[in-house]
Amino acid sequence: MRKPIIYISLVLVISIVIILVFLFSDENNAKNGFERNIKALDFSVIKTIDLPSKSLLFSQNFGDSYYLQDYSNPVFLFSIDNNLSKLRSVNLKLPLLNIKNGGNIAFIDTSIYVTDGLNNVLDIYYLGTARNKHTRLTNKWLDQLNPLSPRTLVAREVVIQNNAPKRRITKIEISKPHLSTIFELDEKADEYFSNDGLLKYDKSSSKLIYTHFYKGEFLCLDTNLQIIYRGKTIDTIRTAKMKLARTIKEEGQKVNTKVTQANPPKIVNRNYTISKGFIFIMSGLKSDNEDYYGFRNNQIIDVYKLSTGKYIYSFYLPKYKGYKLRDIRITGVKILGLYDKVLVIYTLKK
Q1: CA dihedral 69, 83, 207, 171 (to 10 degrees)
Q2: What is the layout of strands, in order, in the sheet containing 342-348?
Q3: Which of 92, 282, 286, 323 could in theory staple to 340 by disulfide, Cβ–Cβ 3.0 to 4.6 A?
Q4: Cβ–Cβ contacts within 10 Å for residue 5, how many?
Q5: Residues 35-88: pLDDT tens digits?
Q6: pTM to 2 decimals?
């Protein structure tokens, strides 16, 4: 009887030591060189709505509705009205599409923009016309579609230059696609991985925001892709820190070089939303004045002024049943958060 007790005690001691080493390791308590102005906001959950997939993210909101898109299969769209009453499936009434591999769908009025993720084409369907008339543009590798009007689109584009892919932002007038307006992202040794991020359009201010995943910077552009300012997040990460691996493969007389990320880089900006003149950025970095437990059990959100990019304050949004926030929308005193397969609706207590 004594041996099992000794064994169990030993296991418990070792487990506690491992937990303490993890919690107080240099990585978890590393100083990142900045502090936040953390505001204690009091939220309460007023409603939850079950979702059909954990791949859903917020897409667009027009009028009195919010839209969610399944990014593992973008054909599946769902909407929820401003009363936040019920999730509804949206039937776009398009021809049968197969855009599972990185495809995108965006819509405005009666125009629907579609990319399939495999072929370098952009299809624009015009609903209400005979047989849903559509236009096809070729040689366009696009994602993150942001329609400005039924005939104007801003998106992220991938092009090949010097035998390597690079990302940039492009504005396309459907009637004159050969006269695209281009905004070049940072020209570094790697212009593909290091420039990865999120592009979103704020209709109320007519501004486009591009946040970088791997460095503390966000760009504010006008609808002609002219830079308004380069915003700096409050962290100290000014360049993307990542290691790349090159694989060279010979196929007959042809030599192909493939570049991949050698290790997962640290994510600085996870996601964001724009609301009422402010940018709300879901940061991936702990500040020096934050408690480790508070950071781990919540999503820290940094608030910046849209007009200037100036940092204002930060606040926490808690995990929901152990799941961390994936995407967010803010409307008035309500916050809509996506967690796993649940939409959680919070209200801000006064």
Answers
A1: 30
A2: 43-50, 342-348, 334-339, 327-331
A3: 323
A4: 9
A5: 999 999 988 999 999 999 898 999 866 556 788 888 777 777 888 877 788 888
A6: 0.85
